[in-house]
Amino acid sequence: MLIVKEPTEKFNTEEIRRGTLVYAKHKTWENGEKGFVTTASEDEVIVQYPPKIGNVTNHFFLRAKEVAKGDWEVRYTNDMVTIVTYPEGGTNEPETADL
Fold this sequence. Notes:
There is one protein chain. By secondary structure, the protein is mainly beta. It is 6% helix and 35% strand. It contains 1 helix and 6 strands; from the N terminus they run ββββαββ. A 6-stranded antiparallel sheet has the order 4-3-2-1-5-6.
């Protein structure tokens, strides 16, 4: 067979979309960042977070393959009532930590 189709990891864009509030921590970061989704596709989510200094816009990129591999801990909500954690039970921070 010339072309082999393999399943790939993709974001559910109905679950995480523009405006979704996100807390994410990469495995190499000491602390996570809080922000909101500005762009969401099946392969990548762009999260904007508040600046530490004025007049600066900061973003980080969640790539589906990296999240699926376990490089990221992610908590997110669309309604401020239900907070979803990925991977389930994977957070190293207390439940009382900010979203």
